[in-house]
Amino acid sequence: MITARAAASFEPVGRSVASARSFVRDTLQGWGFGDIVDDAVVLTSELVTNAVVHAGTSADLLCLRSEDGVRIEVADRYPEREVPLQGFPVDMGNPDREGGRGLQLCAALAGHWGVDYTPTHKTVWFQLDLPERPVGTRAAGPALPAHLLPLADTRVRVAVVQIDRSGSITAWNEDAEELFGYTAEQVTGKPLTDLAAWPHTPGTGTGIADALQLSRWEGSYGVRGAHGRVIPVYASHLRVRDTDGEPSTVCLLVRDHERAVLQTPLRAPSTDSSGGSEGPSADPFEVFIGSPAPDDLDSLLQRTVERARDMLDGDSAFLLLATDDETELEVRASTGLPSARQRFARVPVEGGPGRYGSARMPAVHEDLAAVPGAVPLLNGTGMRSVVTVPLKVEGRLTGSLGVAAEAPGRYSNEEALRLQFAADRIALAVESARLGELERLRRGSLSFLVEASDLLAGTLDRDQTLALMAQMTVPTLATWCAVYTIADQSSEPDLSYVLHEDEELIDGIKSLLSKIAPPDPVPTPGARVWSAPAEIAHQAALRTSMRSLGLSGGPTRHVTTGIGPTLATASAVGGETVVLPLVARNRVIGMLTLGKPTDEHFRQEILELAEDLSRRAALALDNARLYSERTAISQSLQRSLLPPELPQIDGVEVEVIYRAAGEGNEVGGDFYDLFPISDGAYGFAIGDVCGTGPNAAAVTGLARHALRLLAREGLSGPSVLERLNSAILDEGERSRFLTLLYGEMRPQEDGSAELKVVCAGHPLPLRLRQDGTVEPAAEPQPLLGVLEDLELREETVTLDPGDVLLCVTDGVTERREGSRMLGDDGLAEVLTTCTGLTAGAVAARIMRAVERFASDAPSDDMAILAMRVPGLQQD
Length: 875
Hints:
The chain is of the alpha+beta class. The strands form seven sheets. The protein has a six-stranded antiparallel beta sheet. A six-stranded antiparallel beta sheet has the order 14-13-12-17-16-15. Helix 2 runs antiparallel to helix 3, helix 8 runs antiparallel to helix 10 (about 415-455) and helix 11 (about 460-475) packs antiparallel against helix 15 (about 605-640). The longest helix has about 45 residues, at about 415-455. InterPro entries: Bact_Sigma-Reg (IPR052016), GAF (IPR003018), GAF-like_dom_sf (IPR029016), HATPase_C_sf (IPR036890), HATPase_dom (IPR003594), PAS (IPR000014), PAS-like_dom_sf (IPR035965), PAS_fold (IPR013767). Keywords: Hydrolase. Pfam families: GAF (PF01590), GAF_3 (PF13492), HATPase_c_2 (PF13581), PAS (PF00989), SpoIIE (PF07228).
């Protein structure tokens, strides 16, 4: 049964693919189907690309919601382009090639998919099934001795927050005010998402909107307090409804280290063997882990370490998972240890310093003080005895489980056997959950990289590219990031952009990084650890703290005066910092630096995703650099083709307006010039070269400089243009047609001005008299660069006091709005309204009229040259 539908159509242009992705993402998020958003976005992107790019038609997108899942249909108007039907043995091609990946992805990701044909449409559809969402359960834990009970502050505060159907806060108790610093009046009516700092990793986890829709949810996240810092909390959400049937969510929150106040205790399995209630069919996994088992990896691992600690009566427990190549172990869960400090930390399995030598076999250490470093995770924690066992699947090391105690000599081989038995029961479930999380992460990464590539390809502005690089990594991949750029091989790295998820810390981090040496620009791919920011920040913050206490001393290493980071800045950069090179066209053009807050580490999958992003970002940044250089060269060349300044002519007002079309990335086109020839005589020109680019620019430069040179040799106007015509034809294949209006002007003693004009294929100059009449001031003659034997004639025009001569290029007269064109008549009509205006006012009015004639930006260069003989002044 279809319970909801959403439809949209997209034009056959490249940007429609991004619009379609956004439409599907917003639709599924609105329906509360965040679990399948990434798969749906990837499939939609491929199918819409097939329709609008490859088939070249518009795409109709339809989303259908049912009780079991979501069906998405993409239809195009190219039914003749046949698609292999599902089930037929058709070779869909190499997955690395450009086309044909949409059907491969449908087959890999969708539960069902197919193709429907009509005489006018072809529809490719796929269906994604919804995963089952378990509701919360209640259980009771065993009685514990007082010394094993979790620690809490003297005054435990439980914030009670109620959220309505729309996600807005409706209730906020006194403990919430004390914990977070906001009064009830400040937050009532605001969405919880404005305050919650929800942990997010692409492709994994549940969004806050999803969590508020579940009947019960427990877990950790952060709440941004009134002081601007994020407070880690542990929360329990319960979905309820009032007597009117209106649903809302009641959220109980405590400080994260007091999670035991809210955390649902586990129901211990029965140990009474006399009754035989378990029987031979009891599942050893459920006996250890409890039922129902958590459905996500993090919850499963956390429950595992807590049960292992309780089973061996330990003070702490930890679980590490092996990397794909089994060379390192990554901390994924712990209890009784500073988990925030150790999460995702990695230690070698066998070789090198800090190795984890006991990972592959069960091991018991009666006193870690006698074998320091045997279990690197426990260094500095006060734990003395420890038992560790491997997690193995089909003989392959997949992880390590350990339990530790503060007293020495607590464990023996008997405890190791018990723990190994439990590890064997859960190893397969942990590996299955890990592979599921990895698959979701890879799917989310694919969606993330698709959108990142789309954003980076959408701009050629260097500063905007830097901002996009930072905004895509924070907070999705890292807590803060910095981008260094390298102008050329001889230049030092320059700190170009800094971003932190808390805007108040950006200036402090920028100040800190600007005072220390940048990382070395090593071209080796992959992430490498950079320890300098954390070390310098900690030392400087320690000095600051000691000075505030009136103490002296501290670290002996010199810290540059003026760094002065606050404790907040030191905490922000105190975790793991990694550097990824930005390599484009076999050259290091910069470095992407990613950081975590105090004592946090990156997981390997995030570093791999960041490496993929850095390759795309480097190419986008280098493209922006090349575009900027090309634009600067073009603009410099364009400026060289125009006169630097116009001479002042006694008795004649002159005004020029020049507007280049486009973004300044092409040269050539229109040009103008006004220059002295001899005493009392001036040459003027306005021309238009056919086309744009280097060849047109060559003709433009040739024309402007040849006009000045030939005119100053005393040649007449026709002779000047005939010789210029020969020079253009001598350019051969590089030659271009040229329309040119050239003239010589001599101001007269009676206040008039005598002009001798040659109009070679150019729009005719217009003369405006004092009585408002407008007439052409020359006759058309052949353009330059076409005929070898060119015969031109010179025409004489006298401008009386008050008269105006207007010269324009065809970008003015050919200004269009649909099928309408301004034309010569339209220009003359505007000029009739300019009687009595100065030359500057005439040029400005003409330009305003041209710009207002059409709503679109001009598609051609425009040049306006206005010359006016002012009236005689009365005594």
